Amino acid sequence: MTDAKAVEDYPHGYPQQAAFQSSESSFSIYRAFDYLHSRVILEMQDELRCLEDNLQTLDAMDDNPRRKKCLSSRSWDLKQAKRDQKPLSDRATLLSKIRDKLVSYDEILMKTRDIGALQKPSRRDYRSLRRWFYSETPLSYMREEEFIKRKEDLITLRHGREWAGFDGLIEECIRKLPCRLTRWLFTTAELREKTKAKHIYYFSPSRIEKLVGIIITLIIFILLVLPVVAMYRLTTIGDRNSTFDAVGILVVFTMLFCAAMSLLTKAKRHELFAASAAYCAVLVVFISNFSNTGVRG
């Protein structure tokens, strides 16, 4: 028995919106503020440029026979500052400012890069959040509501699953099933307690992934068995045309395998090439074996 609090139990306003967006990872959609990051970086970049110019000017001023040792020795630079009745040399003070500014600049550069690496929300996730936002209207000030319209500046904190795009299609199909069957198969008691709304469903990610895994396994099985059976029937005929037909089947099913890998998984390009080459090699082995068997017969 869990002590779950439904989204509707939170006070209307920011508390309820925060509860909804934290109730499911696909609703963790927020603004990235790309423009502001760029403005701050540009501002700090020019501040560092000015400090760089000041350092070069200071070095040029000391590039003379009387003060040249200040450029080659920190100890001599400090002694010269004491002669000028200063606790630190102008160069040391300026380098300290540059160091602090560089640390801040590098930090915001790295943070901006990390934010840029976050994914954009899928169309389905954005549509779900926007539909809830406009139906519940948790915010009362128009300017504060504008963030939901800035789709190009929104990011999601949701980790992309291997079959994220295909998962979304499966979830859409599941939503069209009868409500009782859907709730029984793809939700849990804890998830059902998250909301009292009848039109909102929280599906179990693990159960969705299991269903997707089963479907993809069946697709791979069909793509392996069907061309083998078809090529076997063609190569057993034993004439020249049947061999060319088998090669045509090999090409077609290899292309289908590539399309399935590209659409159903998040495989990288080199992984896609490697898997396609291995698949094609398996079919070529079957063609050669069946052809040799047909010749002996």
UniProtKB/TrEMBL annotation:
The protein's name in its UniProt record: DUF6594 domain-containing protein
The keyword Transmembrane helix is annotated on this UniProt entry: yes
The entry's keywords: Membrane, Transmembrane, Transmembrane helix
UniProt domain DUF6594: residue ranges: 14-284
Entries under InterPro entries matching the protein: DUF6594
Pfam families linked: DUF6594
UniProt feature coiled coil, ranges: none
Residues annotated as transmembrane: 211-234, 246-265, 272-291
Keyword Transmembrane tagged: yes
Domain of life: Eukaryota
